[in-house]
């Protein structure tokens, strides 16, 4: 889970994940949305792959990235549950007769 949050800590990587919500995109298509060098984008892609948030496949000379939404959902749910959030509301205590 810590690798997922490391990946999500950067606004560029969060934007990449947002772009991939619309469907798979090549590294070049994704890079066109950012004003950074190709090596910098490659480093961002590597962090996202390490966190298992994206899947990369070779298509000729291109690399196509796919969002792995289930991994993101699991990490976020795990985070929420670690704080006791999202659990069922506690039942009210029954008053005892005196």
Automatic annotation (TrEMBL):
Q: In the UniProt record, does the keyword DNA-binding occur? A: yes
**GO MF annotations in UniProt:** DNA binding; DNA-binding transcription factor activity
Transmembrane region(s): none
Q: Which keywords has UniProt assigned to this entry?
A: DNA-binding, Transcription, Transcription regulation
Does the UniProt entry include the keyword DNA-binding? yes
Q: Which domain of life is it from?
A: Bacteria
Q: Which SUPFAM superfamilies does the UniProt record give?
A: Winged helix' DNA-binding domain
Report domain HTH arsR-type positions: 1-87
Which Pfam family name is an example for this entry? HTH_20
User: What name does UniProt use for this protein?
Assistant: DNA-binding transcriptional ArsR family regulator
Which species is this UniProt entry from?
Brevundimonas lenta
Provide the organism lineage as a comma list: Bacteria, Pseudomonadati, Pseudomonadota, Alphaproteobacteria, Caulobacterales
């Amino acid at each position: 889970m810590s690798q997922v949050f490391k990946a999500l800590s950067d606004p560029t990587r969060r934007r990449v994940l947002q772009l991939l919500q619309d469907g798979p995109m090549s590294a070049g298509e994704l890079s066109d949305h950012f004003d950074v060098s190709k090596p910098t984008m490659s480093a961002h892609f590597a962090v996202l792959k390490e966190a298992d948030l994206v899947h990369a496949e070779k298509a000729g000379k291109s690399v196509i990235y796919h969002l792995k939404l289930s991994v993101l959902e699991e990490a976020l749910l795990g985070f929420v549950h670690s704080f006791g959030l999202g659990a069922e509301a506690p039942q009210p205590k029954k008053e005892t007769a005196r």
